[in-house]
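[SOLVED] Predicted holo structure with adenosine-5'-triphosphate

Edit: marking solved, answer below. Original request kept for reference. I posted the sequence and ligand SMILES and asked for the 3D complex as structure tokens.
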Amino acid sequence: MAGEVLQLSGVGVRREGATLLRDVTWTVNEDERWVIVGPNGAGKTTLLQIAAAMLHPTEGSVEILEEEIGRTDVFELRPRIGLASTAVAEKVPAGETVIDLVLTASYAILGRWQEEYDSTDLARAVELLDALGCADLIRRTFSTLSEGERKRVQIARALMPDPELLLLDEPAAGLDLGGREDLVTRLARLADDPSAPTMVMVTHHVEEVPDGFTHALLLRKGEAIAQGKVDEVFTEEHLTRCFGLPLSIERQNGRWYARARAPRP
Ligand SMILES: Nc1ncnc2c1ncn2[C@@H]1O[C@H](COP(=O)(O)OP(=O)(O)OP(=O)(O)O)[C@@H](O)[C@H]1O
């Protein structure tokens, strides 16, 4: 059996009297591709922050890449994890070029200073940007990119250090239909690549789940209400409970579609 990449047991997070996560027990094994789905405020980003070793739980235990949080140096652990999220994008220094943004991921820093990069680093950064359809953007300033271009560059950056775990927080948010479909296709290709890292992606929309994603966890009000193989989790019953309204769901050519169920006459 493949090794455990994430192991959460009884995880709770409380902030300022609010419960953000409650009793989450979750295991992600090597080579799995997970999607975390839930409505606004369900705790998805909080759970991803735990998985990224950016947040300590209030209670419960967390093991990431076989390192126990609280007993390991998170600064050594974080470079083994690729994280693409708006929170990271917001911290990109003004004037940072796309190529530097990807290169600096090798040191898990934002903002190029005096670090040295060799031709192998440069070749890898260019190759990743090319694979994500960003070859033309290499010399551009990150702040001048469109939302769709930024999302793709962030994924290239997250992949740069060859992480063992790739975390994507709402990678398709804010994209137009063409941009969403392009990204979902690229993520499906990545999911299908046996050399790609274990992946966990957060989304509000089942339509954004790429083909090849194997597992799903549904969050509602900080609780994991269903988790396991995607076909077993994406059911009318689970989705209806998760979003709090009657939903139907179907699958076509590997993609999922959900809509509100018409009220019974
Ligand atoms: N420091 C904090 N203090 C109190 N409440 C917080 C704090 N940080 C987050 N929350 C609340 O915790 C809940 C979960 O937030 P989180 O960002 O994890 O949800 P989410 O599922 O990612 O939401 P969205 O889909 O809207 O991005 C939200 O209701 C949020 O307002």
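OP edit: The two ends are 50 Å apart (CA to CA). Thanks to everyone who chimed in.
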